[in-house]
Amino acid sequence: MAATQTGATSTASRNRRRPWIAEFYASSLGKKYAMAITGIVLMAYVFAHMVGNLKLFEGAQPLNDYAAWLREIAYPALPEGAALWGVRIVLIAAFAIHIHAAAVLTLRNRRARGTKYQSKRDYNAADFASRTMRWSGVIVGLFVLFHLADLTFGATNPDFDHADVYGNIVTSFSVWWIAAIYVVANLALAFHLYHGVWSLFQTMGWNQRRFNHWRRYFAVAFAVVVAAGNLSFPIAVQLGIVG
């Protein structure tokens, strides 16, 4: 009797439906939507981060004041730095979901290759874009870890000072190999942004044949603007324009 009850409980547990959001995310379509939505969140951050860092060209005081303002957002209603950490938590969650969805979709696509329905030409184009996204995504992911270690925690800078963001940036970018890492990583980010922006419009259903050329222009413009801004920082330090 006990065994029967245990079996019934086990069956009921297996048959119990998960929340609809979990069911939707489990599907390939759900993961594509998750990638698109988290991609928008990450794109907004990347753009805002680049614009804020342009204060590097205004000098030490404006950039350090900007960094202090970020730490003091919503203070004293919230403890100092709480709002900034809230943003960081959202970004970490978005980053984790983006990576997980991309990894699962990649594995599913590999398993489904035995039943390709595309023409050879379409498949080659899609495969090239997929490989580009995959490797640029890996490079960007590793770069994020390096960037945090370098300019958030100061692991590569023995004279790191949380209050002197300008000095930290100049010290790091004065080292040629660190500057080179930033250049390579931001070129990879540009390719990733271009393909990502193009893809998310299609995933979200924001595409029409007569507007697709504008979609491409936006993808190119966004990637170029972000890359140009981010690349200007290490290049300016290496050339002595900032320092």
TrEMBL record:
GO MF term list: metal ion binding
InterPro entries for the chain: Cytochrome_b-558, SQR/QFR_C/D, SuccDH_FuR_B_TM-su
Listed transmembrane segments: 33-52, 85-107, 135-155, 175-197, 217-241
Main localization of the protein described in the UniProt heading: membrane
SUPFAM superfamilies: Fumarate reductase respiratory complex transmembrane subunits
Subcellular localization(s) per the UniProt record: Membrane
A GO cellular component entry from the record: membrane
Keywords: Heme, Iron, Membrane, Metal-binding, Transmembrane, Transmembrane helix
UniProt-listed NCBIfam families: sdhC_b558_fam
Name recorded for this polypeptide: Succinate dehydrogenase cytochrome b subunit
Species in which this protein is naturally found: Egibacter rhizosphaerae
